[in-house]
Each structure stands twice: as structure tokens, then as C-alpha cells.
């Protein structure tokens, strides 16, 4: 087979994206503005969390805010939850650094949990054992686009309610602290803050949102973003859905209400209030964004606190609007490629991530394989042989306790044997919508040859 050059994860851009960028540039509005607001509403509708309507009434909050990155999204979620020094946040040891770094930025202590022996998901028994009175949030990671077992996660946090201690605040506290305290008291349990960086478009059957006539829980198919209390998404250039950089935070709280409803002002939390605080946190604490200030006579604003800068621009949002139109087709193409990879891995006796089952549908973000019978050195040899034939691969991920920054914080990979075992023979194959059928055939051929050669047959 003639040698080809196969990139690992190039962005899939076309005429729709080009038109949106040109239109944005010509509009004269390139920072956060009408296209960002439109993308927020469209994404919220796509996820099924809100489409600008709550209880039949139009509201200003779409329950989703577009931001500069998934890392910023998770950090702002934790800050709105009131997480800070003295608190603990549970995260998997097998993930990218942003999952843990966002919690560390708030001053909280990160508690790593090993993965399961045959799965990238957290070991849920270890997760349950790690919960104590300091635990404020759990951050499950939908790695590769596969949704975690959220029913199990919520069962555990419900079982551990008696250990939960919501933060206290008094009249002298700032407004953000008061909001975090109200959310924690209303939730009255550990918050589930999903890292859905890979998982836009994934969905899973869960049983906590619907009951039959007898009151028994009924499983319903929910999108990632409409399952957890909060979810962060990444729109980085290597993701299925991209805005070049960028991300989003969304929420799906069991108690949030519209400001249009009658509510107890001192205890309830509205979706509009949460949205407003995301705006403040992402725009220097400025009480009006540029779009609001552009209205006639509306130049004046306040700075409620010296906060952060991580907003999305309309140039990025325009790309996102084009991507969202194309997204169902992009997801379907990934599914076709996954099917071909599954076939070759099964023939080679290579374990692989399972993207599509009766329980869930993945976003098909990463095609993760484990080379049975090979160690770290042989895994590296396969990667090199494939690179020599023009096929770029990757490894997802080197567990965080192996990284210098986390080792300096006291993490030791020996405490996470399952994570190390799954890392030691893992190879991620290129999976993206720029691959032609001929490209996929070439990847599978090169992969097969490299695996067989290293195995000695």
C-alpha cells in the first residue's frame, strides 16, 4: 500500500466556518456579542437543558455560557459552587491536567482516585471511601467521549449525604460566597461536576430524572450536559466540535428556578443569577459586557470584584455555529470509522474502548486501544513503526501522578496501579472526520503490521 501521511487530529473546517468568520469580521463585532449569545442558546437547546424557556416563560439564561476554555469553565463552576481552601475535590488519576488544575486554582485539595482494572472510569468503591466532610465536588471524566456511570455516582453521593457539610456564610460575606453557600445548602450533597471535555453529543440512559406511575425510576436517554449538576466542555482545535479555542459551562441543577417565579429570595437560586455570575467571573467582574454597554446611553458599568478574563469571542462563536450545523454528520462519520477500527482490533486481539452500547452512545472522540501482551517498551516501538509509515498516534493519558508537578505535590503512581497498567500499553489511533475510507484502510493496515511485528508473528 502506497505510503500516506495521516495526521492525528486536524480540525475539520469548511465553507460554512469560513463564511461565519468573514461575516463576523465584516459585522464590526468580533468580541463577545450576538453570535456568542446565539451559540449559547443553540448549544443549550442541543443538550436539552434549556432553550431560553423555563416553565413556559421566556428567560434570559440558556443554562449554558460559552467561555475561553474547558479549564476556565470548570474553575468558574467550582468558584460559583463556593469551593475553596479547606475543601476537597475528587478527580480521577487517569485524566488530563486541566481536570485537576481547575480545582487546584480555587485553593481546594485534589484527591486522586485510581481507575477500574478494566476501564478508564474511576473505581467507584475507592471514590466512595474517599468521601469525607471536606468533600465538596466530584469531577468524573467522560474520557474519549464515553459517558461515565452517572447512576452509580449519584447513588454514592446520595448515600454519603450524612457526611456533607455545606459552607457557612454571614451578612458580611461577598455576594459570590453567599451564592455558593445557597447552592450548597439547596443541593445538600456533594456536587457532581462532569468533565465533558471530550463528550459533546454523547448520551446515556440514566434513571434519576423520571418515574413511572408507581413512582419507580425509569431510565431515560440524556445528553452529557443534562445529567450532572454542572458540566464543562472543550472546544479546543483537536475536539470533535471546535471553535479553535474555547469551551462552555452548563448546569442542570435539581432546584434552580427562573427569576420570573415567586421564590424565597434569601435561599433560592435562579438560573439567571448563575448565568450573571459566570459573566462577572469571565469579564473582570464588570457588571455589563460590551454588547450591553453598546446600547443607547448604557455606557456606565460597575466592577463588582477584581475577577478573571476568559470570555469567548464572536469569531470563535461563529465557527461554533457553523460546526453545530454540521455536527450530526460529523458524529455519524466518526461512528463509521469506529466500526472499522473495532473490526481490526477484534481480529488482532487488541482491547479497545467501546463507544456504542445499549447503555450509552459516545461522541467518538478518541479511539483508545490496549495492546495485549505488550509492555511500555513494545508500545513505544509500535508507535515509532507507525510514525515511520506516516501514521501519527498518541497516548491518552500519562496518569497525573507520573507528572512532575503532581509528584511534587505528593502524588505517587504506585498508589494507582490500575491507572499505570492501562497506560503502559495504550495507543490512541487517529480518529477524525478528515479521514477518507482509504485513509482508514491505511491506518488499520499499518497498525496491524506494527502489532504483529512487535508481537513476533
How would you characterize the overall build of this protein?
Helices cover 38% and strands 14% of the residues. The protein has 457 residues and is of the alpha/beta class. The protein has 2 domains: 15-316, Aspartate Aminotransferase, domain 2 (3-Layer(aba) Sandwich); 327-455, Aspartate Aminotransferase, domain 1 (Alpha-Beta Complex). A hairpin with a 2-residue loop joins strand 6 and strand 7. Helix 1 packs antiparallel against helix 10, helix 2 packs parallel to helix 10 and helix 3 (70-80) packs across helix 8. The longest helix has 35 residues, at 314-348. The chain is globular, with a radius of gyration of 23 Å. The two termini are 20 Å apart. The relative contact order is 0.16.
How would you summarize what this structure contains?
The protein has helices at residues 15-27, 34-47, 70-80, 97-105, 124-130, 150-159, 175-187, 271-282, 290-293, 314-348, 376-388, 404-407, 417-424, 437-455, and strands spanning 53-54, 57-58, 64-67, 88-92, 109-113, 115-116, 119-122, 135-138, 191-195, 203-206, 220-223, 230-234, 247-251, 351-352, 360-361, 367-370, 426-429. It is of the alpha/beta class.
Q: What's the Cα radius of gyration?
A: 23 Å
Assess the beta-strand content as a share of residues.
5-15%
The fourth-level CATH homologous superfamily of the largest domain is: Type I PLP-dependent aspartate aminotransferase-like (Major domain)
Instruction: Report mean pLDDT, rounded to a whole number.
Output: 93
Structural class: alpha/beta
Query: So what's the overall shape?
Result: globular
Into how many domains do the coordinates divide?
2
Percent helix range:
25-40%
Q: How many beta strands in the DSSP annotation?
A: 17
Oligomer: single chain
CATH class descriptor of the largest domain: Alpha Beta
Largest sheet: 7 strands, mixed
Task: Label the CATH architecture of the largest domain.
Answer: 3-Layer(aba) Sandwich
Amino acid at each position: 500500500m502506497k505510503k500516506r501521511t495521516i495526521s492525528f487530529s486536524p480540525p475539520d473546517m469548511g465553507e460554512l466556518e469560513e463564511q461565519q468568520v468573514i461575516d463576523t469580521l465584516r459585522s464590526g463585532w468580533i468580541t463577545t456579542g450576538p453570535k456568542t449569545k446565539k451559540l449559547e442558546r443553540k448549544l443549550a437547546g442541543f443538550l436539552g437543558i434549556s432553550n431560553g424557556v423555563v416553565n413556559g416563560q421566556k428567560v434570559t439564561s440558556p443554562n449554558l455560557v460559552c467561555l475561553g476554555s474547558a479549564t476556565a469553565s470548570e474553575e468558574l463552576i467550582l468558584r460559583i459552587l463556593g469551593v475553596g481552601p479547606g475543601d476537597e475535590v475528587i478527580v480521577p488519576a487517569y485524566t488530563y491536567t486541566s481536570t485537576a488544575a481547575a480545582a487546584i486554582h480555587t485553593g481546594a485539595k485534589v484527591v486522586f482516585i485510581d481507575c477500574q482494572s478494566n476501564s478508564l472510569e474511576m473505581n467507584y468503591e475507592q471514590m466512595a471511601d474517599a468521601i469525607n466532610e471536606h468533600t465538596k465536588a466530584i469531577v468524573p471524566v467522560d474520557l474519549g467521549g464515553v459517558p461515565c456511570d452517572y447512576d452509580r455516582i449519584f447513588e454514592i453521593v446520595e448515600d454519603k449525604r450524612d457526611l456533607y457539610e455545606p459552607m457557612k456564610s454571614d451578612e458580611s460575606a461577598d455576594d459570590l460566597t453567599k451564592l455558593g453557600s445557597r447552592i450548597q445548602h439547596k443541593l445538600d450533597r456533594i456536587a457532581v461536576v462532569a468533565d465533558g471535555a471530550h463528550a459533546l453529543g454523547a448520551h446515556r440512559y440514566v434513571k434519576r430524572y423520571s418515574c413511572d406511575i408507581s413512582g419507580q425510576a425509569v431510565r431515560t436517554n440524556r445528553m452529557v450536559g443534562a445529567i450532572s449538576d454542572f458540566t464543562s466542555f472543550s472546544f479546543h482545535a483537536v475536539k470533535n466540535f471546535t471553535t479553535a479555542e474555547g469551551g462552555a459551562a452548563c448546569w442542570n441543577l435539581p432546584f434552580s428556578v427562573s427569576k420570573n417565579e415567586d421564590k424565597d429570595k434569601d435561599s433560592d437560586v435562579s438560573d439567571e443569577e448563575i448565568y450573571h455570575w459566570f459573566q462577572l467571573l469571565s469579564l473582570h467582574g464588570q457588571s455589563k459586557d460590551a454588547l450591553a454597554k453598546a446600547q443607547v446611553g448604557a455606557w456606565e458599568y460597575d466592577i463588582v470584584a477584581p475577577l478573571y478574563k476568559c470570555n469567548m469571542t464572536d469569531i470563535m462563536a461563529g465557527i461554533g455555529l457553523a460546526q453545530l450545523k454540521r455536527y450530526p454528520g460529523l458524529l455519524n462519520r466518526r461512528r463509521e470509522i469506529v466500526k472499522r477500527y473495532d473490526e481490526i482490533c477484534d481480529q488482532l486481539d487488541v482491547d479497545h474502548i467501546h463507544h456504542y452500547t445499549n447503555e450509552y452512545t459516545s461522541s467518538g472522540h478518541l479511539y483508545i486501544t490496549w495492546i495485549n501482551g505488550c509492555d511500555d517498551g513494545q508500545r513505544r516501538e509500535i508507535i515509532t513503526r507507525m510514525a515511520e509509515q506516516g501514521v501519527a498516534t498518541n497516548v491518552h493519558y500519562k496518569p497525573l501522578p507520573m507528572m512532575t508537578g503532581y509528584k511534587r505535590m505528593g502524588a505517587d503512581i504506585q498508589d494507582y496501579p490500575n491507572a499505570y497498567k492501562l497506560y503502559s500499553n495504550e495507543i490512541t489511533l487517529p480518529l477524525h472526520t478528515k479521514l477518507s475510507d482509504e485513509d482508514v484502510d491505511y491506518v488499520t493496515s499499518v497498525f496491524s503490521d506494527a502489532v504483529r511485528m512487535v508481537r513476533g508473528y
